[in-house]
Amino acid sequence: MAPALGMYGLFVLRPLALTVQYSLYQWDGIGPSTWAGLSNYATVLSDPALLAIIGNAFKLIVSFSVVPVLLGLAVAVVIRRISASRLALTARTVLFLPQVIPLVAAGIAWSWLLSSTGVANQFLSAIGLGGITRAWLGDFSTALPAVGLIGAWVLVGLCTVLLMSGMTKVDPSLYEAARIDGAGLWREFTAVTLPSIRQEIAVCVTVTVIAALASFDIVYISTQGGPGEATMVPGLEIYELAFSHRQVGLASALAVVLIVVVLACVLPIQRLARKGGER
Amino acid sequence: MSVQVRARRRHGGALVVAVLGILAAATACSAPGAPQAQGTAGSSAAPATPAAAATSAAAACGTAPVTMDAYIETGFQVPNSLMAEFTRQYPNVKWNIRQDQFAVITQNAPRVLASDPPDIMRLPSISDLVKDGLLKNLDGYATAYGWDKWPSSELVQLRLGPGGRPRGEGSLYAMGLNYSMTGVFYNKKLAARIGMTSAPATLAGLDQDLAKAKQAGITPIVQFNGGATGGFAFPLQDLMASYGPPGPINDWIFNKPGATIDTPANLQAVQHLTQWIKAGYFEADANAMDYPTMISRFTHNSGLFTFDGDWESGNFDKLMPGQAGFFLMPPAQAGGPHAAMSAPLTYGIAAKAKHADCAAFFLNWVATNPVARTIDVQVGGSHPLGATGASMPAIKPGTVTAQTLAAGSVISKENGSMDFIANATGAIYASAWTPELQKLFAGKETPSGLLSTVQSDYKQELGG
To answer: Is residue B223 within 8 Å of residue B306, measured between CB atoms?
Structure first.
C-alpha cells in the first residue's frame, strides 16, 4: 500500500499540485516567474478564443461518445445474436482493431483517406458525387466533423466489446421468460438487455466523454488544430500555450479548468449509473 | 471544516486531504523557475573570450579524442555533410548527433539548452533564448576570428540588445551555416506552354503569367497552407516587398519600438494576395497541403510557380534537372529595387556547452574552409557566409542553384534582405499568421482584419 501510494503521489498528485501552482504565476518555463493570482483563470474564462476551443471539445462529444455508444449497442446486439457464426468473431476483431493501432498511425492513415486525392473523394467521384469532394480536413466547415469521424471509428470498437461482455453476463433465462411473455426483439432489448448492461453503458459513456474532452493525438496528427482554429481542442491548446507560446501559467490554468470540466461531466454520469444499479 | 466532514463520510475523502496536503507543500515552495534563471543568466552575459591563440584547431578542439554534442534539424543534409567532412579533416573530433523536426526543436529549445546543453544546435527564433541567458555571447569569437569584418548584413539578424530585444543590433548570439534566400521558382516546361520566355520584370507581368496559366488549365501557384505552418506567408511577404521598402518590415520583425505590420503598403499586399485567391490561382486544397506535398507536386509538374527558398535548389536540380527556374519577386514599378526574405541557417552554442571553443572553431571553419563552402552550395544550395571575395565553388551553369546564387548577389547589392515575418516573435507564426492566412484563403477574413489581428497578437506577446 505505502509504495503504491508513494508512486501515486510522485507521478499523479505532485504534477497535479504543480499544475495548480503554475497556474497562479506568469512563467515562460525557464526564467523567473511573477505571481499572477487568479488572472490566468480570468483569461481562460473570458477570452472568446479559448472559450470557443472548449466549445469544440463539447461538439466532439457527439461523435466521440453519442455515436460510438449507440452504434456499439446496435452492433453488440447483432453480434450476440449471431455469436455462433464465424462472422461474429471476424466482426469483433475488425471492430476492435482500432484500439490496437496506435492513434498516431490511425491519424496519419485517416488524413490520407480524407485528403483531396484520397480514397474518400475517389469513392464520391465514382458514385457521381464529384461535386462535393474537398480536402475534408482542410475545410472550415468539415474539418471538425472529419476529426469526429476518426474518433468515432476508434471508439466504436471499444464500446462494442465492452457492451458485448456485459450482455454475455445476462442470465439467458431472462430472455427466455421475455420470449414466453411474447416480447418482440425491441421489447426484449428495452426490457432485458438495456437495464442489465446499465453499468457497462455508464463506463462507455464515461470513457468516451473523457476521450472527447481531453482529445489530443488525433487532432495533433490530422489537423494540428487548423484550418484557422476550426479543430483546436483544449488538450492541444494547453500544449501549444506551454511549449510554443511559453505561457506556462495560462496553459496550466486551462489544464485545471479542463480537469474541472471533465469531472463536472463525468461525476453526474457515474452517480446516475450508481443510483440506477441500487434500484 | 467541510474537508473533515467529507473525509469521515467517504473513503475517497482521504484522497482529498492528501491532494490538499501535497498542494500545500508544493505551493509553499518558492515561485517556479527563479533560482535556475539567476544561475544561467550570469554565465552568458559576458562575451566568450577564447584562450589566447585558440583560433587554431589544436587549441580549440585539442588533440585528444573529443565528442561534440549536436542537435540538428531532420530533413536537411547540410549539417551532417559538414560534420562528416570536419571529422575527416580533424579525426579527433567525433559527433553525437540528435535530430528532430524544426517544430520540435522550436518547442524543446529552451529546456534542452537549460538542462542538456548541446555544443552546437539548430536554433529557432532566438530572442527568448537570449532573454533567459541560454545562449553563449559570441562577441569574443567574432573578434578573434574576424567575423566582425564580414558584411554586417550577413549576421545582423543574430545580434540582440541586452535582454533579447530589440534584434538587429548589439551582441552576436548565433551564427549561420549558410545564408538562405527566397523567391519564386517556376517550372520551365509549363512556362514554355504559356509562352513565358523570361522572368517577369514587374508585378503586373507576374499577374499576366498567372492569368495565362489559369487560362491554359495549369495550376498557377502550388503553395502549402495547411497544418501548423501557413505557407502563404511566403507569397505575402514577397508582395509586401513589391509594394514597399523592406526597412519597416525588418523593424517590425526586430521588435523595434512602435513598429507596426498594419501599414498601407502591407494592406495593398494582402489585398493583392486576396485577388490571387479569388482568381483561383492556388489549389483548392491549399489549406490541407503540407510542405512535403507542395514539393512533391511542384517537382511532378503540377503547377507553374511555387514561393520557396534556395534550400530547395539542390533538391530541384536533382529531381527535375534543367526544368526548374528561379527569379526574385518583381517590384510593383518597373526598375524598382528587389527584396527577399533571407536569413542565416541559424546555429548557436549553448551557454553551458562543454566544448564551446571547438564549436566556434567549427562554425568559423564552415564559413572559411573551401571544401566546407563547396558543401554549403552543392548540398545546401545556399550562399556560404564569410568575407566579401572569399572563394566560391564552381556551379554548373543553367542549374537553378546557379540562378539562386546569382539572385543572392542582386539582393546584397540592392540591400533588399528581410528576415521572415514568421520570426518576429516565438509564437506569431503558429498563433497569428497561420490561422489568419488559412481564414483569408477560406474567405473568412478580410485583408485589414488579418493585419490588425496579427498586430494585436504581436503587441500582446511583446507586452507579456
So the answer is: yes
